[in-house]
Write a structure and sequence with these properties.
Two copies of one chain form a homodimer.
Chain A: E1 8-14, E2 17-23, E3 25-27, E4 33-35, E5 39-44, E6 48-56, H1 58-70, E7 72-73, E8 80-81, H2 89-113, E9 120-128, E10 134-139, E11 144-146, E12 153-157, H3 163-169, H4 176-193, E13 201-207, E14 215-219, H5 224-243, H6 249-253, H7 257-264
Helix pairs in contact in A: 1-2, 3-4
Chain lengths: ~270, ~270
């Protein structure tokens, strides 16, 4: 999967705003690791502010982004649809889906003939004047799902390593910069467990109803806050683990052996 | 993948012994979740003590276990090879691989014709008199890899959620019951993030050179130690997270905007 599994992006939609972040590493070959932008921002202050995070084949997501910038003809209206001129977030998500399908129409079959997966997943979050904030996850087939207050976050790419900390941390009423902190802890867990995800991390914070990104930043190597967060977290885990008593099962095992004696005997499986 | 992704097992080989554990949940259909044994122990005290943890299609792993119990004919020696009569751990791992291939020979093609993955992965750990402790991960094709002191643990099944805590916790000199504790934290993370992995957890501890399991147990619902471990860990994460300062990027973003201004403009992708 060309560049596909080498990404980790998070979108978090809480009561007071949207947080989006993504790593920037892409591996299109075996020993050629480069940094590519996976977080794309579109903003016209006061009118709209949209963030897209991309995962999957770089050739697919780059083509999709080009269509979203340059526009796709709309046969119903006769106009050119770009991400910048959509009337609502729902229309914007549909447009991203249409761009996915258009890239598939052009490249998909040939890619599959060459044994390549047509593989892409895009998070789209933001707000357009007159509408509410939304966060969508759009799939390669162009269909999409929306985040709900019950989950509050979405991940794309290499998402499993960093899911437990998000599950424990993100609620609908989490303040955006606290959500950002938990997102960075999730990034830290992923980077530690998977060499193909790495710094820099791009991030953006969009307060609700601001229609203007409050924070846009890139965390590079040796970023003092991120380095400190990783170190502090390692200590939290170590001290917390040491404070939990050693499992008591050793002593009790013999007594309780009758419950699990079937484990011992080489019986045929159930 | 029938029952395949619904498993999480860990094997840990440290200086002083082996720890093996596995969840017991199997989902062979959509709304039918059952408990099946995934941890299998073979012991002749003083001679050998072996633990197998299985993941993948239940039909495959059950058949493999039957072959390991009932034996496979060895064309070179003319004898019947069972897991109980192997001269070394390396031979035992080879026998598991042979059993995998035998099941594939019988069922594999028909399974694949029906669109089913021939999918199995087995951890084999233990010690046989005259040899050292070993821990192997054996794949569906019958080939295998061995754990090294640098990694010290192996996982099969739904392994990513629970990897970060193991990466942070397990070293070659970790005492076995501390390794067990970290394994349970890894189980907790996985159970929280993936509904298809669940209690009970089977576990076994084998001290080095004992050739006899010291601990064999099953952690059921409402196990006081495990419940307390999960609660304490949730507090560790929450307090640790709260103690880390809020990310400073908000204030600095405007100043540093020139570094990331390309994020803002809807430029064509690199």
């Amino acid at each position: 999967m060309a560049g596909g599994s080498m990404t980790y992006c998070i979108g978090i939609l809480v009561k007071d705003g949207l947080v989006m972040m993504g790593d920037t590493r892409t591996n299109e070959g075996i020993d050629h690791i480069s940094s590519f932008r996976k977080l794309h921002l579109f903003e016209e202050p006061g009118h709209h502010a949209l963030a897209l995070a991309t995962a999957g084949s770089l050739s697919v997501t780059q083509s999709v982004m080009t269509f979203l910038n340059e526009g796709l003809p709309n046969s119903e209206t006769g106009k050119i649809d770009t991400l910048a001129n959509q009337p609502s977030m729902f229309h914007a998500a549909q447009l991203v889906g249409r761009a996915m399908r258009e890239v598939y129409r052009i490249d998909g079959k040939a890619m599959e003939k060459n044994g390549l997966n047509f593989d892409a997943n895009i998070l789209l979050g933001g707000q357009i004047k007159g509408g509410n904030m939304h966060l969508y996850s759009i799939y390669a087939a162009g269909h999409f799902i929306e985040v709900t207050p019950e989950t509050a976050y979405m991940q794309i790419g290499e998402h499993k390593y960093g899911k437990p900390i998000l599950d424990r941390s993100i609620r609908h009423d989490t303040p955006p910069y606290e959500a950002l902190k938990s997102g960075l802890l999730s990034m830290d867990a992923t980077i530690r467990s998977n060499l193909s995800v790495g710094l820099p991390i791009d991030l953006a914070v969009l307060p609700r109803d601001a229609m203007r990104f409050e924070t846009i930043d890139r965390i590079e190597d040796e970023d003092p806050y991120f380095e400190d967060l990783c170190k502090q977290w390692a200590k939290v885990i170590q001290k917390g683990r040491d404070a939990i008593p050693t499992p008591p099962y050793g002593g009790k095992a013999t007594k309780r052996l009758s419950n699990v004696v079937n484990l011992l005997r080489p019986t045929p499986p159930e």
